[in-house]
Amino acid sequence: MEYQKAAELNGLCNGKIVTEYLCRNGFSELTVDAKKVAVQHKNETSRKEAEDESRLPALEEAYTTILRGLGENTDRQGLLKTPLRAAKAMQFLTKGYHETIYDVLNDAIFDEDHEELVIVKDIDMFSLCEHHLVPFFGKVHIGYLPSKKVVGLSKLARIVEIYSRRLQVQERLTKQIAMAISEALQPVGVAVVIEAAHMCMVMRGVQKMNSRTVTSAMLGAFREDPKAREEFLALTKSA
Amino acid sequence: MERSKQKQMNESENEADSAINGHFDGRVKIPGWSAGGAAGTPSTAPSSSVMESWREERTRSLEDNELSLPSIAAAYTTILRGLGEDPQRQGLLKTPWRAATAMQFFTKGYQEKIIDVLNDAIFDEDHDEMVIVKDIDMFSMCEHHLVPIFGRVHIGYLPNKRVLGLSKLARIVEIYSRRLQVQERLTKQIAVAITEALQPAGVGVVVEATHMCMVMRGVQKMNSKTVTSTMLGVFREDPKTRDEFLTLIRS
Hints:
Oligomer: heterodimer
Largest sheet of chain B: 5 strands, mixed
Number of helices of chain B: 9
Helix content of chain A: 40-55%
Low-confidence stretches of chain A: 1-9, 11-43
């Protein structure tokens, strides 16, 4: 049930078990009961792909307001269709809200008698800072020690996609990926390391071009056994 | 907001020449239009070349920023809801304001004029060899998707008795890049600004950038870079000068 809590942190009812969640923007039929939350998030997503089209006009209007507020001329040729493009781009960059882990993973878990470290590294990750709505991007390294069950390798990258294409905080992203793998496979241990550059720090604010933020989540054997952690870190160090 | 409304009305009169950003880049100056503090802006005969741009008006002031912040923040709240997020959750409570301020910072080039930045730093120097400032980090916003563009700018010029303070080249880059831009136009605006300010024998500007609209979405090509260049004066006519410039920025 830890996973359920992690998934609630963004995309659903965020940070607390809610007894009732009435949303103003079109899916008010989703009334969430505390008891139902566990089931609800497995089958439902906080945004349905089919509704994206109907949300576009409101988003477009919002972007037009923003452009005008910035002092630009929304009638000039380069900006004519920008609200629509920006709205679609933003929907794409937050498409992780459409998807659930269960859709992505269900078929690709295999029984395999393998108990050594499996690492998928240098997975490019692009996400949006939830505080400034500005991108942050970098690489994700995932390692796990299977316990009789292995997962299709691309599914690890898909898990990264689902959680990163949202409004995120790097710490939470790391944890969500680790917990998703943990829940799905029940492995002996999971390790996730993310190294990213945050445009909100590079393009504005302190403006430090070369700074990188590194976060990690170590679960199971990776947390308890220093040797396993060392092996993972040594193998993911870029040469 | 009166000021910006006035601008909107004026814009509709000049729609034919609407390809350029910053409103009055190279446009006819409307007689009687004062944007507040418009010192030293001549009323010119109609000429719609980008060459006028360095004498342009500021299209936005600090007061405008303050006045428009609430409406931009409200727009961001709408966007958050439209994306399926809950604007009341702890991480998103102040996000509309932060995002609005951030966006205003990313477009702060509209608040500045070249002439303010350059006025004192032009010196008479009897130097006629190439001067290059390279690897200037540049951050801009794609005007089509409102997504960042970042990269490097290399500037070279052949002075003609007048040299410019070196950091002023980087400031020119800042003024033009902190706007809603198209890379081609950015390159040209930088080159033209330097030409207008110094009347050098030649100017060369190369911009090499990564477009997040191509990397994060759309085709999703991680490693692609876009390179644009503008060569004016001697750099355009003399292949040897251009070669020297391009070799020196490679090393």
